Structure formats: C-alpha cells, structure tokens
Amino acid sequence: MDRMDNYKQLIFGAKPKWTVILTVTACSASALVLLLKWFGHQQSWKKIQKAKVRREKSLQRAEHAVCQFNESHPETDTSLILSLSLAELSKQLKDGTLTPQAVFHSYMEKTLEVNRRLNCCTEVLLESWDQLEDVDSHKDGLLYGVPVSIKENIGYKGHDSTCGVICKLDLPATGDSVLVEVLKRQGAIPFVKTNVPQGLQNFDCGNPIYGLTLNPHNPQKTSGGSSGGEGALIGGGGSVLGLGSDIGGSIRIPSSFCGICGFKPTANRLSLRGASSCIRGQKSVLSSLGPMARDVDSLALCMQALLCDHMFRLDPTVPPIPFNQQVYQSSKPLRIGYYENDGYAMPSPSMGRALRETKALLEKAGHTVSTPQPQSDLFLVVRGLLGDGCTTLLSHLKGGPVDPCLRDQIIPYSLPRTVKKILSILLKPIVSCERQCSEGNVALYLFSKDYIHEVIAEWRRCELDVLLCPMVGPAYIHNYPGQLTSTLTYTIIYNLLNFPAGVVPVSTVTAEDEEELRHYKGNYGDLWDKLYKKAVTDGEGLPVAVQCVALPWQDELCLRFMREVEMLVREDKK
Which of 4 and 292 is assigned the larger pLDDT? Predict the structure, then answer.
C-alpha cells in the first residue's frame, strides 16, 4: 500500500486505524488550543468592556457633580482660575481669595471637556470629592487645594494601575503609592488618572483598554508617551500639575510634544513605591517619577512639596535630601555644555533652530557655552533596558490584542533567539555590544557604571555645570514612534547615566522649518532617517523644546537652568 492509498483510506473512513486515531487526536488538540484561545480572548474582551464601563460611569458622575456645583455657585470665575499659574493659584487658595471647591470643580469641568476631545483620561478618582470635604485639615500644605492629575501606573487605593495591559486589569491597589500619600498630606487633591501606551515602553499613547490619546495642538499627531495622557491633559489646559514617570523620555517626550515643561529627577530622589511597571527588575536604565506642568516654577514647587519628611518616613530607601531653594534661586552665571547632533539621529530643522536660538540667548545673558564631544552609547542602553530579551514585557501582552502603536516595535522582540543572533551579525554596529554584554546582566551593570563615571569625568574635565541638548520633536504622526525607537538617543541616555533632565518649550515649527524639512537627509539617509522625516512632517505651529541636563543629585541646578531658559525665551518674545 502506497502513501496515496493511506490518504484514500483516511478520507473514506477505511484502515489503517492508527492513522485515523492520530489524526483525530491531532485535530482534537488543535481544536482545544483554538477553544482556549477563543475563551482567553472572550475573557479579555469582557475585562476591557468592564473597564470602559467603569470609566464612563466615573466621567458621568463627575459631569453631574460639576453641573450641580455650577448651578449653586454661578459666581465662580472659571476662566480666571484656569488662567492662573500654580504659584498664583496656590497663593490665592492660601489667602482665601479662592476656595478649594471652586478650583477643583473648575479644573474638573475643563478636564471633562479636554478628555472629550483628546481621550486623555482613564478614570476620574471619585474619592477626590471626599478628600475635598476634608482638605482644610491640610491648609498648611504647600499644595493646599491644588487638583493634581496622575499617570495611570501610579498607585491610588481601590483603582487599577494597568500600564495599558489587560493582565493588570481588576487588580486594584490596596493602598496609595508613596507620592500620592505625600500629595494628600501637602493638601493636593489627586483627581484623575491619565492614559498611557500599552506596556509603557513606547512614546505613542494608545492601548486596547482606553484607546488612543490625541495631541492638544494637532489631532493627527501623538501626545507622546508614556506619560502621554498627562501631556495632553496639561497641554490642553485640564490640569495645572501632574505626575508622570520616565524610563527613556516618558515625561520629557510628552512635555515636548504637548508644549509644556517636564522634569525627570535623579532616580530615587522621589519614591517609586506603589508605581506599576511591565519591566521591573532591570537595574541599568533607571526609572523616575517626576512632575509635569505649564512652567518651571510649578515643577520646582512640586519637587519642594514632595521632598519632605513625610516621604522620607514612608520610604526610608530614599535619601533624605530636602529641596535646596538656594540653588534653585541662584543667579550665578553657568558653564553650559552644548551639542546639536549625537551622531545617531539628526535633529529636525525646527529642533536645530530652537537649540541655536536658545544658545544665543544664554550667551547674550552672560553664560559660558562650550561644545564638548557628545557621548551616547545607544547599544549599552538597549541591552540594559531589554536585558531579558524583552521576555517580561512580552509576557504582559499575552491574552489580548496588541495596540497598533506598539505592533511594529515588538516584532523584533518576538523573533526566535537564533534569528536575533543572525540579525545582530548582519547589523554590524550591534556586534560590538553583543560582545560587550555577553557575560550577562552583572557584567552589563558594571559596564554601565564604568560608562557613567567616564561621562562624569569628561564633564569635570570641561568644567561644566549643566548641558543644553536636543529634545525629541516636534510631535510625530500616530503609530510612527514604534518604528522610530532609534530617535530616543537624546533622552534615554540620561536614564542610563542617571542625570536629572528636563524639557522647556522654546519655539514652534515655522513654515520655513517645514520647507527645510523637505530637504532633510539625516545623518545616514537610511530607512530610519526617511521614516523620521515622514513622522514630523506637517508640523507647522507645533511646539519645539530643548533639553536641560545636570549631574546626578543636582536636580535643583537642573531646574534653575530650565527656569533661566524659560525666562530668557519669554523676555525675547516680548
């Protein structure tokens, strides 16, 4: 009997029986796998729908509460309240000119309006009304009566911190994160959670649970990530102060894209306890929680409020270093390092122009600007961040759909190890890193430490106080960030180095910038340079920012430098 006879017998129900048995078993196993997958997707869909219903109910209840307040307090000047800086708002709250109730409902109303346009909120924290009733017990707090928005991954008792992944749904926090506790002790009122990209490891802002967040200046553009909901809400006027997290630019990029200020402190200057993540455990590229706001003074006030004895007691692993107001308010001339191009990603015309204009303003104001050699070890960064081959991140994506903003990015992460090895040989620049890091995570950690000290030694040799450098931008078209992780070199390097870094908007994209972009070739003229050109095109009117950097634990000096840039730019526009 030949092979064809076996096939005929199998098709028509004849012998041999072992073939039938094996085929039936295989079909049953395949059917079981498909059934389990279907069941898993059904469970995921139910979880997503439940989360959406929960969000919608919180928004509706907030809308109802705002309407009730407006009817009973028609004298409230919402426009005036929303126009005040954090410093002005705080002053008027403390002297009784404004009530916490008027400020809270004014910002809640604006948040609901901004969310309808930009889809930036994941849930209104309804407990904030209870806190509002008791807020006068914290009248001495530095943030008394100030509504504060918080990124979705920051723990708030009774609420999920999903990081945009389905497996973290229906796992509400059993207590507040340390920074939320400190905010409350300082009289602030956390009132809303804001959207994030799926898994947090992306600088777009969409996930299968809460959807896509839009840029407040142009809905065709992303708000950035991973603190993209914060960037959109603050940039849209719905929040005066927010908390984000940053492991590769996640505070700085949304701040740049949305035209606000953002600050990544030295890691462990602020407590991370109670913040959720999808890549916990890696020690080379460090994450920080930090403030986002409309101006630098607001960032400084937030840092001052958080760096208090209460935080140091709640988390004794944080060095008890209070905010140094003297350094922040100093007017001493600075020695500033400066570079326009790190050799990986050439800045867009608007980025380059904004940097040069800022440099000229600083020199005119009496500061010394020098140009040290930029140092950026991209591959050490990548190996540190994805040291487990992205296994941890991928495990969080199982059991549900992958968002379009992340899909292109994770394709290489999902390749078999053999294929990755072959690609690392073909892509020659990665070979050196492959050799460097072949000894494992301990060796990688030691390489990182050596690299940090090499960079610090170069700063000392050049006698630098701070550094002015490019900031990723202007805002990209949706779904391009996942294809352009190569452009993160300007931000992620300062997570590896653990240098405090912040972003200040200094300009907007002009028609001349757009014309010059038409001739943009990049450093290499390769696929990534061409993608970048497409990503930032049609950006006229979008904000453009610069990045300010200082040495580890010199957070106040970094903020002081940011304030100097902000002040000089503001005066130049008068």
Answer: 292
Higher local confidence (pLDDT), 2 or 528: 528
* Residue 400: DSSP 8-state: S
Q: Are 220 and 269 in contact (CB under 8 A)?
A: no
Q: Is 137 annotated as a binding residue?
A: no
Query: Hey, what are 105's tokens?
Result: 């409902």
Catalytically annotated residue among 90, 106, 128, 226: 226
First to last CA, the chain: 94
- Which residues is 336 bridged to in the sheet? 369, 466
Q: Is 277 a catalytic residue?
A: no
CA distances from 122 to 1, 56, 59 (A): 66, 9, 9
Supply 365's token pair.
Answer: 């104001």
C-alpha distances out from residue 414 to 125, 204, 393, 420, 474, Å: 36, 20, 10, 9, 30
Q: Of 177, 227, 250, 277, which one is the catalytic site residue?
A: 250
The Cα–Cα gap between 357 and 353 comes to 6
Give pLDDT, residue 432: 35
Place of tokens 């690609």: 423
User: 248 among the known binding-site residues?
Assistant: yes
| pLDDT higher than 60, residue 16 | no
Judge whether 332 counts as a catalytic residue.
Answer: no
On whether 452 is known to bind a ligand per the annotation, the reply is: no
Look up 161 and say whether it is catalytic. no
Q: Hey, is 254 helix, strand or coil?
A: helix
- The pLDDT tens digits of the residues spanning 557-569 come to 999 999 999 999 9
Contact 482, 206 (CB under 8 A): no
Q: How far apart are CA 359 and CA 338, in angstroms?
A: 8
Neighbours of 407 (CB within 10 A): 14
Q: List pLDDT tens digits, range 79-110.
A: 999 999 999 999 999 999 999 999 999 999 99
Of 288, 273, 246, 267, nearest to 173 by C-alpha is 273
Q: Is the pLDDT of residue 70 over 90?
A: yes
* Contact yes or no for 505/352 (Cβ under 8 A): no
Pairwise CA distance, residues 261 & 256, whole Å? 7
For 38, the token pair is 């279907």
> Which segments of 161-208 does DSSP mark as H helices, in order?
178-185
Q: What are 185's two structure tokens? A: 């002790």
DSSP 8-class letter at 488: G
